[in-house]
Write a structure and sequence with these properties.
By secondary structure, the chain is of the alpha/beta class. It has helices spanning 38-56, 60-74, 77-85, 89-96, 108-115, 129-139, 162-172, 190-195, 225-234, and strands at 24-27, 120-124, 147-149, 179-183, 198-202, 220-222. Strands 3-2-1-4-5-6 form a six-stranded parallel sheet, covered by helices on one side. α1 (38-56) packs across α2, α2 packs across α3 (77-85) and α5 packs across α9 (225-234). The longest helix is centred in the N-terminal third of the chain and has 19 residues, at 38-56. The radius of gyration is 18 Å and the shape is globular. Mean pLDDT is 88; it is low at 1-16.
């Protein structure tokens, strides 16, 4: 691991706000609060592919092309299917709920670190609440979160649409200058930074999460969220 880009460099990016001023901690879910395994990613691809194939009456090759295309152009495959084909999102969500989450394990250290953060914790996800709540229960962090803001709460307008971030702030009384947002997809931090939030990029190996030309909107970078929170605690939540 490159010592200049790994967890040890968590505080080496741009200055950002003093973390002691943060009173809202906003976390993405999948690949941020836990790592989605290759097996789970394969399941998701299979479930999405089978749904699109049946819903649109196309073969699986074409279904995958549509899936990836809508993700790129609409920010979320679900959003593309809704706009282009009038899909009822509940039908899609019910199909994706078949995802097996048994690989997700309790993470008591992460739970303890989240408990120690001052202020309120919110999950902001392009997924749906039932999935989010099951994942939270499996990790063992449910009690530490004040709220979940899912794709339905965003009126099915996914990240990185800035209006959805504004909707989140309005709904939960978030003052952006006193908020920190954690995300695995770098481009999803751009609206957060524009609104004035402190941003933390939790990097993964997934190619779509790295699709960003400029990281000037990112205050902190880490490959390990738990290590970052541990370091923040040791440093007294000060930059």
């Amino acid at each position: 691991m490159n010592p200049e880009t790994g967890p040890a460099a968590s505080f080496a990016a741009t200055a950002g706000a003093d973390l002691r001023e943060i009173d809202h901690w906003i976390f993405d879910l999948d690949n941020t609060l836990y790592r989605t395994s290759p097996g789970m990613l394969g399941q998701i691809d299979e479930l999405m592919g089978s749904f699109i194939s049946e819903f649109l009456g196309v073969d699986r090759v074409r279904a995958r092309e549509i899936q990836k295309g809508y993700f790129r152009t609409h920010g979320l495959t679900l959003r593309g299917l809704m706009l282009e084909h009038g899909l009822d999102p509940k039908v899609y969500i019910d199909h994706l709920s078949q995802l097996d989450l048994s690989e997700i394990r309790p993470d008591p250290e992460l739970a303890g670190l989240l408990a120690g953060l001052p202020g309120q914790k919110i999950i902001y996800t392009n997924a749906f609440t039932a999935h989010t709540e099951e994942v939270m229960d499996r990790i063992g962090i449910t009690e530490h979160f004040h709220a979940v803001f899912d794709i339905g709460h965003a009126d099915y307008v996914p990240k990185p649409a800035i209006d959805s971030y504004r909707r989140l702030c309005q709904r939960h009384g978030v003052t952006p200058a006193r908020a920190a947002m954690f995300e695995d997809i770098a481009r999803n931090l751009e609206p957060a930074a524009e609104l004035g939030m402190t941003t933390v990029w939790v990097r993964t190996d997934t190619h779509w999460a790295k699709d960003v030309a400029d990281t000037g909107h990112i205050d902190h970078i880490t490959d390990d969220l738990t290590a970052w929170l541990r370091d923040a605690k040791i440093k007294g939540l000060a930059d």
